[in-house]
Amino acid sequence: MAANGDTATASNDVHGLGNGKKHILLNAFDMSTVGHLSPGQWKNPVDKSATKRNLDYWINLAKLLERGNINALFLADTYGGYDTYEGSLDNCIRRAAQWPVTDPTIPITAMAAVTKNLAFAITASTSFEPPFLLAKRFSTLDHFTKGRIGWNIVTSWKKAAFKAIGLDSPIEHDERYRQADEYLRVLYKLWEGSWANDVIAPDPENDVYANPDKIRTIRHRGKYFTLDTKHIVDPSPQRTPLLFQAGTSAAGSAFAATHAEAIFVSSHSPKILRPKVENIRNLAAKQGRDPRSIKFFATFTPIIGRTDEEAKARFEELKKYTSVIGGLVLFSGWTGIDISKIPLDQDVTAADSLEAHKVTSILEAFTTTSEYIPRWTPRVIAEKAAIGGLGPVSIGSPATVADEMERWIREADIDGFNLGYVTTPGTFEEVVDLLVPELRRRGFYPDTPEEPLTARERVYGKGQNGLRDDHTGSRYKYDVYKEDPPYIEGEEPPLE
Tell me, what's a Pfam family for it (predicted)? Predict the structure, then answer.
């Protein structure tokens, strides 16, 4: 199988390892909550997910991932509970289905202090805070981690989250992306356009630390945001964090093709996923971007044993602790379908989604049938929802799981995976101790770099700390900066 996995040559990808094969990028996928994608495992004696409110959990996890040269720790986040199932938040709370949730940004500096290479991709929303505040926080984190920060951009959709900040209902889906597009442009202005590179030039004799003439005041007048300020943080190693985005709806794909450098995708079938990947690459190419520069990460949950039999036995043990209702709570929340109201063996379709606010791409992914899942019924969903969050689960020896990953890389045209866990740190220990050596044996996984790299360099190669020249954010860099004209009432800002 290894011979068939050379899906891209070294000349076509910065991660070619000199052997004609493509480096598979691996992120560890976690969340500052008890029940992430496999609710119920907190009952398992080997699981430590209930200790995430202890800083030692994050420090030990970071050390483990560093040992395996994992690309990044990708941290999901949410701003409200899941209350679609039975029209109540009760089962979300009772089953610890992504509840409670702490702030994912807080442990980052502690993890950075015990690692040199691990990057951190943090989920934060464009819907809940002014761009200036987010710009300050991410610039600070990029400094403290020496450039190892990525941002997973979300627009937020939960009614519960909007109610928590005093709004009765989420903004309409496509409008959220138009707002997010402007939000990003404000951030580029702050991160890329406000400070020259040589502002800080300490001159003790003349009592001068920095040159105010080289810090531009950003005067933004848009539909959604107004800004009149200089950025308060000096340029960090990357200036703009590595930009992740999730979502493959029409609006989400247009946004991703414009702004994303890495895209988090989810599907139970690589054949269903591939057209979505191709669409975003084509949209990016129309904007003058190199379509191969956008890296796609698919959700993937491995259960690994030293042999296939050992892995299957491990899976049977894990099933004893699953919370089926917890999984259904997540499914209902993501899709807007209250699955508690649908007969067990009735087909579930997109028409069952009566909630206007949901994750459109997930609804489509998990109501679309394939050769792997010919019917989606509550019974089928219940069987799959409690482990892996309805994403692909691969059970087997390192060789079996590596074969499956190669197949996804080849058939879906993706670049890597966000690896979900069933138990933590157990799943990640299996990845580091069993899977990574197998991938290295096949020539798909590199050794730890000799010198630390930034988050962007780990994706694009040494020396690429900042945005690529073909990225829209580059037009806001200090030396070429031109302020956008003010928004005129009635003009809809386009999604490029």
Answer: Bac_luciferase
Place of tokens 């009765």: 168
Cα separation of 138 and 64, whole Å? 24
pLDDT at residue 256 in the model: 95
For residue 220, list its beta bridge partners.
Answer: 227
The pLDDT score that the predictor gives to residue 355 is 59
Residue closest to 418 by CA, chosen among 410, 408, 403 = 408
Amino acid at 429: E
312 touches 305 (CB < 8 A): yes
Question: Could you tell me how many residues make up the chain?
Answer: 496
Nearest to 356 by CA among 167, 157, 175, 179: 157
In the structure encoding, which two tokens stand for residue 164, read together? 């928590």
Measure the CA–CA gap between 407 and 272, rounded to whole angstroms.
Answer: 14
Query: Measured in whole angstroms, how far is the alpha carbon of residue 317 from the centre of its chain?
Result: 29
pLDDT for residue 395: 98
Over residues 388-418, the pLDDT tens digits come to 987 899 999 999 999 999 999 999 999 999 9
3-state secondary structure the chain: CHHHHCCCCHHHCCCECCCCCECCEEEEEEECECECCCCCHHHCCCCCHHHCCCHHHHHHHHHHHHHCCCCEEEEECCCCCCCCHHHCCHHHHHCCECCCECCCCCCHHHHHHCCCCCEEEEEEECCCCCHHHHHHHHHHHHHHCCCCEEEEEECCCCHHHHHHCCCCCCCCHHHHHHHHHHHHHHHHHHHHHCECCCCEEEEHHHCEEECHHHECCEEEECCCCEEEECCCCCCCCCCCCEEEEECCCHHHHHHHHHHCCEEEECCCCHHHHHHHHHHHHHHHHHCCCCHHHCEEEEEEEEEECCCHHHHHHHHHHHHCCCCHHHHHHHHHHHHCCCHHHCCCCCCCCHHHCCCCCCCHHHHHHCCCCCCCCCCCCHHHHHHHHCCCCCCCEEEECHHHHHHHHHHHHHHHCCCEEEECCCCCCHHHHHHHHHHHHHHHHCCCCCCCCCCCCCHHHHHHCCCCCCCCCCCHHHHHCHHHCCCCCCCCCCCCCCCC
C-alpha span between 227 and 219 (Å, rounded):
5
Q: Over the stretch 219-256, which tens digit does the pLDDT of each residue have?
A: 999 999 999 999 999 999 999 999 999 877 888 899 99
The segments of the chain whose pLDDT lies below 50 read: 1-14, 358-359
